[in-house]
Amino acid sequence: MPQKRTTLLQGTLDLLILKALATGELHGLGVSRRIEQLTGGTFAVQPGSLFPALHRLEEAGWLTSAWQPSENNRRAKYYTLTRAGRRQLGEEEAQWNRIALAIARALEA
Amino acid sequence: MKSRLTSLWRNIVRSDAVERDLDEEVRAAFELLVNENVQAGMSVQEARRAASLELGGIEAVKQQVRDARAGALVDALLQDLGYTLRALRRTPLFTVTAVLSLGIGIAGTAVVFSLADAYLFRNRPGIADSRRLVEVGRTDAGGETGFYSGDGFDTFSYPNYVDYRRRQTVFERLAAYNGGVTFGLGTDTSALRVSGGYVSANYFEVLGVPIGLGRGFRPDEENPASPAAVAVISDRLWRAEFSSDPDVVGRTVRLNGRPFSIIGVAAPRFNGYTIDFESLWIPLTAYRDGDDLRRYERRGQQWLMGIGRLKDGATISRARDEMATIAGDLRREYPDDNRRHGLGVEPPGAVPVSLRPVVTRFVGLLFALVAVILAIACFNVAGVLLARGLSRSREIGVRLALGAARRRIAGLLVVEGLVISGAGATAGLVLASGTIRLVERMIPMLRMNIVFDLGIDWRVMAFSALVAVITGVACGLAPARAAARIDPAAAIKRGREGERGRLPVRSVFVIAQAALSVLLVVCAILLARSLRNASAIDPGFAVGGLEVVGLDLRLGGYDTANGRAFAETLMSRIENLPGVEAAASARVVPLTREREGGRAWLPEEVGDDRAIDGSQNIVTPGYFRTIGLTLVAGRNFNAADRAGSPAVGIVNETLARRAWPGQSAVGKRLMLGVSRRPMEIVGVVRDSKYRTIGESPTPFFYVPAAQRYESIMWILLRPGRGSAVQEVRALVREMDPDLAVLETATLEDMTAFALFPQRFVTGLSAIVGTIGVLLAALGVYGVTAYNVSRRRREIGIRVALGAVRRQVVGLIVGRAMLLAGMGATLGLIAAAAVSRFLAGLLYDIRPLDPISFVGSALVLFALAFVASLIPATRASAVSPVETLRAE
Lengths: 109, 887
Known about the structure:
The complex is a heterodimer of chains A (about 110) and B (about 900).
Chain A: H1 10-20, E1 26-27, H2 28-38, H3 47-60, E2 63-69, E3 75-81, H4 83-108
Antiparallel strand pairs in A: 1-3, 2-3
Chain B: H1 2-13, H2 15-39, H3 44-55, H4 58-68, H5 72-90, H6 92-121, E1 133-140, H7 158-167, E2 171-186, E3 191-199, H8 203-207, E4 211-214, E5 230-233, H9 235-242, E6 252-255, E7 258-266, E8 280-283, H10 294-297, E9 305-310, H11 316-333, E10 341-346, H12 356-391, H13 393-401, H14 406-442, H15 458-484, H16 488-494, H17 505-536, E11 547-552, H18 560-575, E12 580-586, E13 596-601, E14 612-619, H19 623-627, E15 631-634, E16 648-652, H20 653-659, E17 669-672, E18 677-685, E19 700-704, E20 712-719, H21 725-735, E21 741-746, H22 747-754, H23 756-790, H24 792-800, H25 805-834, H26 850-877, H27 880-886
C-alpha cells in the first residue's frame, strides 16, 4: 500500500513494539501489522529494522519469545512482554508525553 | 543487564542453535507473508514475489539481526579472523614473506626499545621507591670571574657534602658516593679486580636497599679521624667468590692490600647506583693514605655525587630551590673553593645525568634506523594487501550486493593487516630476544664493566604490541579504503577495479621503498669502504703474535719505592721464562685509543706557542725489539739508564724532524713538561701509529720505565710457541698472591677493540642495508607481478598482434626499472643529506663518495631488474589465446 514513509527513530520503534505487545503475544510479522494498525497506517516498519529491534528488546530482557504454531500451521516465534517490559513501556510512555508536551509548548510560543 | 550478559553468552557459545533459530524465524515470517498475500487473492507466484519484496531478502534481514545482536562485534571479529587465517594459509609464500618482513622490522624496534628502556626509562635494580629519589650534583652557577671545571652535572667535595647534609631540610636523608672505582680484592683463594664505591654511611638507607646478611654502615663509621675498615659486598660477589657462605660476615679481605672486614651482604639484584657493576662498598672515609687523606679536608677537591630521598610532600623544584640557596651561601662563605659552584637536583635514572643526552641521541639514531626498515616492510605488506584486495574486487562486490556493510569489508581488510602484523610481532619478539642474547654475549668484548640489563619485559612487549597494531592498521588502510570505494555492480561485471589516478598507490609504495633502501645501502657501502681503508693502514709495528698482560700495582698496595722494585724483579723474571721470547712493559698499549700526553720544549724556547705537543710512552728497554720498531739512529735504553742517572729519552722521526730539521736528534736536549725537566735524546725510532689507526703523524717520545715509575704496567709478550700468558700469571701469583691481574689478551684483540665502534656501526648498517634492499626488491617483484596480471589481456593482444617475446618483457621490465629509477633518485638525494652525519666515522672517504652512491644505485637496479624479470618472462610465455580466453 502506498504510504508516506515517515522516518522512525530507534527509540520510538522500541516504544511502538512494546505497545503493540501490550495486549498480547504476537509473532514478528504480527507486530509489524499491529503497529501499522495502531498508527493508522502512518508507520510501516520494514522487517530489516523490526527483527533486529525485537531481538534487541529480547536481549534487554523486556520481551521473551517462544515457538508456537501460527495461522498457516507452521511454527513461528511469538514475543511476549515481560514484567520488566511492562514497566519499561510505562516509563517510555511517560517520557514521550513529556517530550511531546514540551515541543507543543515551544511551537505555541 | 543480566539478560544482556546471558544473551551474549548464548550468542557466542551456542551460536549454531541461535543461527538455526533465526533462520527459522525469518523464513516463517516469509511464509506468513506469502500466506497473507494468497489470502488477499494473489496467485502463489505473485504472492511469493510480493512477499520477498516486502521482506527485503531473507539473508539481508538475518544479517541485520546479527549486526544488532549482543556480541555482534565479537562475532564479526571472529568471523573475519577465521576468514583471514584461511585466506593466509592458502597463500603461504606471501604470508611467510609478509610476516617475516614485518617481524624483522618489529624485532628491530623491540631491541632498540629494550635498550632505551634499560638505560633511559627504568631505574637501577634493587632500589626501593625510586619516585622519591633524586640525584644531586654540582652545576655551574655562572658568575663573572673564575674558571669552571666539569660537566653540567658533576662531583662535589667532602666538606661541601657535610655542609649540604647539615643545612638541608627537604630530604629525609642525603647520601654521597664515589662509584665505579676499581679495587683489587684479595681473598684467601684469589685475587681479582672488582668495581666498587666509596659511600656515605646512610647510602643503603637512602636507596632503600636492605642488607640481607649482617648490617650496613653505622654513622660513626664515616669519620675521617678514625677510618673504619669495613665493607659491604654485593649478593652477586657473595655467591661468586664466597660460595654463599653464611659466615662471610666478619671475614677479612684485602682491598688494594689493606685488610677490610666484611660486615654485610646487600640484598640480591643491587649492583650500586652507577652504570658500572659494583660489587662492594666501603665508607667514604675508609682510606687513610698519604694521598687520599687530603680529599676529606680540601673543599676544592671534587669527587662525590649525591643522592637524596625527598621527604613526604617535598617536590623536586623545592629541593632545587633549597639546594641552590645552600650552594649560594657556601659560595659566599668560601669564595675561592666554591667559586661558581651551584647545586642541581635531577630525577634518578639508570644512566648518570651527564651521559643522558649522549645516550638519548644514540638510541634516537638507532630508532631512526630501525624505523626505516619497518617502513620499508610496511610498504611491502601494504602494497601486497592492496593488490590482493583489488583482485578480490569481484568477491567484494558480491558481498556488498548481498548486504554486507562497507564498513565490515574495510574492517576485514584491516583485520588482515592486524593478523599479519600480530604474527610479525610474535616472530619479531622471538627474533628480538635472540638478538639481545647475542648482544649480551658481545658485551665482554667491550671491556667495560657496565650493567647490561636488557630483556623482553612487559614494557617491551606492550611497545611491540603497539607497534604491531599501528603497523597492521597502516598496512590494512590502503586496501581497506580502496575496497570501500568499490561499486558492486561494476566490480561483479568487470571482475576487477581499475585504479584511479595517474600514479597508482602501489607504485608510489615501491618508489618509497626503493628510495629508503638506496639510502640504507649508501650508508652501508660508505662505512664498509671506510672500514676497509682503516684495516689496510700499516700500523708500523707487528701487531700479530703478541700477548698482553695488564697490572696495576696500586691495587696490590704498592707505592713508588717498593712498586719499582717489584716491577723490575717481575720483568727480569718474565724475560727469563722459557715460554717467552721477548717481553717488555709499557704504560700505554698502542692502538687502544689510550694516550699519555707529553709536552716538551727546545731548551732555548719558552711559551705555549713554541711547545711541542705530542704523546709519550714509558717503556722498558726490550720494548722496541718486542714490538718490532726499528731504531734509525742512536741507541736503545740500557741498564745504565736508571733512577738517579741523567734523564734520557728516545724520540720518533716526526718529533726529530720537527725539533731539529736536517740534523741528527741524538745528543740534543728537550725540556719536558711545565717543570721543564731536561731530557737527553739518545735514539730516534721509526714512526708508527700510536693511538688510532687513522691518525696523522704525531710527535712521540719514549721514557725509560726505570726513570719514571707508573703503577700501571702493560706487559707485552712475544711467546716462543703458543701462549705465554698462563706462565706470566702464575709468576705474578707466586710473587704476590694479592695482586690482581687487570686483563690478558692478544694485542690483536685489544687493537681490534679500538676499531669497535666502526666495526659495530658498519656491521649493523650492512645488515640493515641488505635487509632493506632485499625487501625493496621484493616490493618490485610484487608490483611487477601484479601489473602483469592486470595487463594480461593487453599482453595477450600484443603477442597475438605479433610482438616478440623480448619486446613484451622489455616493456614490463622497463616499467619496473622506471619505478626503481625514481626511487633511486629520491634515495640518493636523501643519502647526500644524511651522509655527512657519518663523517666522524669515515677513514679516508668523503661523505659524498661517488663510488658508494653510484654503487648503491647499481645494486638497486640490478635487484630490481632480476625481480621484475621473473614475472615478465612468465607472463610473456603464456599463450595469447589463453589470456584472452580467461578474461
